[in-house]
């Protein structure tokens, strides 16, 4: 082959440049497009919680514990309900007795209340989840349906994820000694059933659905309402949208 | 991922209930509790679905139980739920003495 030295170097340089460029683009895609579903055939789950509909009955938290065998002690919750009461003087009282399982008793006298509302909390199933990023052994991962899950066999119980979750949605299981969290009742989703918290919500304050399906009830709701995610400045790619969220909620 | 899909369900889902209790579905659909799913009040029903034994499902009664939703609280929207003060509303009586839980506004005589 009659190739000059100059031509060879030129071709090799171009090839190396293209390879490097491609590698760089691909790696940055991980960050840029992490929110994109991996498998187009599978649903991509999102959740809506309507603050105005929640009545603080605690059925969701109770059902979650029963369905997922979550320890009954009042420190372990995969979902819980908080009551925010904004007083006339602007101060805010936040209570969540036993995660709301036993209901809420009025703690602030009526004449001092400016407004009061309930906020159900659960895993936000972030598409750029901090918990997945910090796990040193890859035990936390995102399912192709966008559900953040834990492989208990891999988890070493180091607690990094518990600290990393900005929504406080994880805990260390007192018996298994590994991290535990909401799975959006993945075992139920696989059977075509609604997550236990949504199955038992009497007012339909919680909703889940396929974000990829533009005709789904969830997408319709998101189009028609002004929704918000918690701590949007952290750019976690949260897929839990709140309707009627007040500025006091943290 | 497979392990996460493994656990058995405890809540059977409303459709499983209506396979046998069609009459309740008809009743319920006519009143304000129509959107409430069975297991919200009756608790996890998968065992009952399998065994069909009455003892395997909750039949809650009592003022406190109904109060878990209907008790007056400033956090609840008036448009979402009817709220009552258990201290003044027909004290000494059970809710189901007057109201049929599946059709709350079909008052019992």
Helix and strand run of chain B? HHHHHH
Poorly predicted segments of chain B:
none
> Which value, in Å, is the CA radius of gyration of chain A?
23 Å
Instruction: Write out the strand line-up for the largest beta sheet of chain A, numbering strands in chain order.
Output: 9-1-11-10
The biggest sheet of chain A, with number of strands, parallel, antiparallel or mixed sense and barrel status, is: 4 strands, mixed
Q: How much is the average pLDDT of chain A?
A: 91
Identify the quaternary structure here.
heterodimer
Report on this model:
- The complex is a heterodimer of chains A (250) and B (109).
- Chain A is of the alpha+beta class and 250 residues long.
- Chain A contains seven helices and eleven strands.
- Chain A is 26% helix and 20% strand.
- A four-stranded mixed β-sheet of chain A has the order 9-1-11-10, covered by helices on one side. In chain A, strands 3-2-4 form a three-stranded antiparallel β-sheet, covered by helices on one side.
- In chain A, a hairpin with a 5-residue loop joins strand 5 (140-142) and strand 6 (148-150).
- By secondary structure, chain B is mainly alpha-helical.
- Chain B is 32% helix and 0% strand.
- Chain A binds chain B through residues 52-53, 55-59, 63, 66-69, 83-85, 103-104, 106, 108, 110, 113, 116-118, 141, 143, 149-153, 183, 186-188, 190-191, 193-194, 196, 199-204, and chain B through 1, 3-11, 13-14, 35-37, 39-40, 43-44, 67-69, 71, 73-77, 80-81.
Descriptive terms for the model:
heterodimer; A: 250 residues; alpha+beta; three-stranded antiparallel beta sheet; 7 helices; B: 109 residues; mainly alpha
Question: How are the secondary structure elements laid out?
Answer:
The complex is a heterodimer of chains A (250) and B (109).
Chain A: H1 5-32, E1 45-50, H2 59-68, E2 79-87, E3 92-95, E4 113-122, H3 130-134, E5 140-142, E6 148-150, H4 160-164, E7 171-172, E8 179-180, H5 186-189, H6 196-199, E9 206-210, H7 217-224, E10 227-228, E11 240-243
Parallel strand pairs in A: 1-11
Antiparallel strand pairs in A: 1-9, 2-3, 2-4, 5-6, 7-8, 10-11
Chain B: H1 14-18, H2 22-28, H3 38-42, H4 46-51, H5 63-70, H6 95-98
